Amino acid sequence: MKKIPQRTCVICHSKFDKRDLLRIVSDKSGEIFFDPTGKANGRGAYVCKSEACLEQFLTKNYLERAFKRKVDKEVVEAVRQKLSERVKMMK
Question: Can you give the residue ranges of every domain in the chain?
Fold first, then answer.
């Protein structure tokens, strides 16, 4: 039996299977983006699909906390847009 990787939601700190979370990545060049595949190179921050966690992640400054650096508002908006689109597809 293959071991399934576990990751922790940056909001509620609950553990989930990696494939059940949404991943935001900061790559080596410093670009931050939503990773729908879960396989992009770089440091990942994971958010569970619960509405409460997504809402908190999108409204509060969790990108800066997760990656421990300043994040431009345009980048935050781009990630919000992609996450919102993804959540609409899941419903």
Answer: 6-90
Q: Is 39 exposed, middle or buried (0-12, 13-18, 19+ CB in 10 A)?
A: exposed
State pTM to two decimals.
Answer: 0.87
Q: 6-90 has which CATH code?
A: 3.30.1230.10
pLDDT tens across 28-73, in order? 999 999 999 999 999 999 999 888 898 888 788 888 888 999 988 8
Length of the chain measured in residues: 91
Please tell me the distance from the alpha carbon of residue 3 to that of residue 11, in angstroms, as a whole number: 25
Q: Which long-range contacts (CB under 8 A, 24 or more apart) does 84-89 make?
A: 84/58, 86/22, 86/34, 86/36, 87/49, 87/54
